[in-house]
Fold this sequence. Notes:
- It contains 14 helices and eleven strands.
- It is α/β, with parallel strands linked by helices.
- It has an eight-stranded parallel sheet with strand order 1-9-8-6-5-4-3-2. The chain has a three-stranded antiparallel sheet with strand order 7-11-10.
- Bound molecules: ligand TUI.
- Ligand TUI is lined by residues 21, 44, 71, 95-98, 116-118, 122, 137, 143-146, 227, 229, 261, 276.
Amino acid sequence: MHTRITKLLEIEHPIIQGGMAWVAEYKLASAVSKAGGLGLIGAANAPADWVRDQIRSAKRETEKPFGINIMLMSPYADQVAQLAADEGVKVVTTGAGNPEKYMKMWKEAGIKVIPVVASVALAKRMERCGADAVVAEGCEAGGHIGENTTMVLVPQVADAVSIPVIAAGGIADGRGIAAAFMLGAEGVQMGTHFVVTDECQVHDNYKERIIKAKDIDSRVTGRSTGHPIRVLRNEMTKRYLELENQGAGFEELEELTLGGLRKAVIEGDIKNGSVMAGQIAGMVKERMSCRTLIEKLVQETETVMKGIKIYE
Ligand code: TUI
């Protein structure tokens, strides 16, 4: 499975672990990188000092490349962007915004820059300002999402840009990876399945909620406020969607989700917290190590790709 992505990132398998807020810390990222994928540390809303510690801890764990994801709505985005350059991070991915203003600094620092996009327009803009690749993330993904599904977004982005495309949203096994390749992607980014790996430090309740999820358990909060977030359904989403239907305002809704991800990830409060996960949670049934997961994904993908036979 060697593609322009494995070459660009100097990794063995074109599998990237999503830089999930509160979830993707150095233990997960380094385990994924050690297993031949690309691990990411999620900077989320964390201050630069926390991110620096995480980067240094990951460097102690592995010499393999890893990256950081910068959430552009973070109040610390400017400092973390500078930190990436100062610490010599190999790869930066970005989410929830347009990273154009940092691009020159990152390129000068020799960083491989891979913005996550949810539209063709942003993908083209990112290519123009020097991105090395893009992650095209469909709305099957967990957390902050755009409008298009992976099936619809990936081929349109692949047609619109010449840089390699990484598909994300709704992928958790070899069939999904093979399908992403068919759509024109040269790599995949996965989040939800990595949440239930042994090396992921989230509360056990969070992992169990994903394992128990059914296909119809996914909900999107915040469509009315312009901040759509995909989570697994619970008491919080029930209340939130009721209020949203009744036309509640931003502040009343915000109160229900404030600190919700921390509540779920750290405290294990999966009833009132925000259990961010992708729609594919319904298919994630097994816990395993990152290495076992990556080996399984590679093997499944190769089997599916070899066996592709559409017509008799
Ligand atoms: O960023 C994500 N997923 C995330 S970030 C996050 S942290 C958070 N926590 C609590 C509340 C809110 C956020 C959780 N999940 N995925 C990448 C992604 N980026 N999806 C969609 C986008 C996106 C959307 C609009 C990127 C750019 C954009 O417009 C930028 C522009 O200016 O055109």
